[in-house]
Every structure is written in structure tokens, then in C-alpha cells.
Amino acid sequence: MNIIEIKNLYHRFSDGNQALDNISLNVDKGEFVIIAGANGSGKTTLLRHLNALILPQKGIVSIAGISTAKDPVRARQIAGMVFQDADSQIVGETVYDDVAFGPENLKLDRSKIRKRVSDALKAVNLTEFADKQPFMLSGGEKRRVAIAGILAMKSKILIFDEPFSNLDYPGVKQVLRHIILLHKSGHTIILTTHDLEKVLAHADRLVIMKSGKIVRNGAPESVIKGVDIFGIREPYASRQGMSLTSWLE
User: Fold this and answer.
1) Predicted TM-score of the model (pTM)
2) Mean pLDDT, rounded, for 71-84
């Protein structure tokens, strides 16, 4: 069952650059999809359409049957996005306040807000951080706060734009572990990354973009070979002919 449907999507920036060129893509409910490509390939622009931060100039984007053009607010509640710069997404003075921001804007009663925040912080293992100031946290912890904010909105689709960017190794492990757990709990995951080595073995599908177009789309094993021609570093294990399951060992 498709939870995301994109049909003939185009987007041109004000400077004339064609960012998206006739993109069509469907994503099934519960699927884990990685979108990869060199800088300027259109990855982030596509993600922002999924979260209704950019509305289609031409074409259709549907989130759980809802047109982003017709109801962007509802689409944004279903598809939550964690930005590459976690600091830009933090608005609360405490971790609790930040995670509560979305539910408060939905005008929920206080008891429901407390329950949503409690559940979200527990899901990302930040319960003990509720009273801390977000900007005092590590990079990995900030990303988890951002994830908690999306979970508190009851988003079915979680969108991550370069979630491992600027994180040290412990931070990468923290964030990746929680993304995998969220996928296993039934969330649909859409993720862009420059570093396929870390996450590809966990994905159901790999989509490669170049110059605003989808140039490859399929099971990671069938798509990954030779991706260097698209400005993406092919993981060492793949170049050595190892299976994806062996990457998990």
C-alpha cells in the first residue's frame, strides 16, 4: 500500500535551475528508503516536497492520500522531517518544551501533551533529559530531540536529511540505532545520506538521483554497483563483492 505517491513532479528555482525534473516515485507503508546523490542532485528539494515545505509547481505529491497542495498542514503532521542542522529545528528552552511544541500547536489538552512528550522521549531514550537545555546537548542528542518532536506529532512517516552529518562516531551510532528501532516499530523511513556504508544494509530500497532526476531505483543489492559514476562513493564491502547482510556482522 502506497503511503507516498509522487507523479510527474517538477521544481525550478527562481534562478532558473531545474531542481526536480519529472520525478515519479511511490513508497509503501513501512518501507525504509534511502535517497542518495551528489550535492545538487535534488535530494533535499524532494524531501521538502514530502514535508510540504515546498509545494508542487507542476505534478502531484500525495501523503497518505492527502495532496500536499490542498492540505499542507495535515500532510506535514503525517510526514515529519528532521533537518540536517538540528539546531535550526530546536525552539524550546528545555527538551520537554521543545518536544511539546508541536502537540501544543494542535491545541491538545495538557494531559495528552504530557503523554505524547513522555512517550516520545522514552522512544529515543531521553526521558532523563526533559529539563535540560537543548543547546547544551551533543549533536547526536539534539538529533534525537528533533526525532522526539516528530514522534510527539504522531507522524507516520519520518524523513531524515543527512542525519549523520557532523556527528562523531558515538553520535552516529545513537541516531542510527533509533532510526532502525523506529522502522521496526512500523514507521516509514525516508533518508538521504552521503555515507551509504553506515545504513544501506538496513534499507529496503535505494534511490539514486542526478541532476534532478531519478536514475536508479530498486533493491540496494541491484542498485549499488557502480554508483561512483553518479558522484556517490560505493561502499568498500560492495566493491569487494560482499552481500549486504554481511555488512551487519
Assistant:
1) 0.91
2) 94
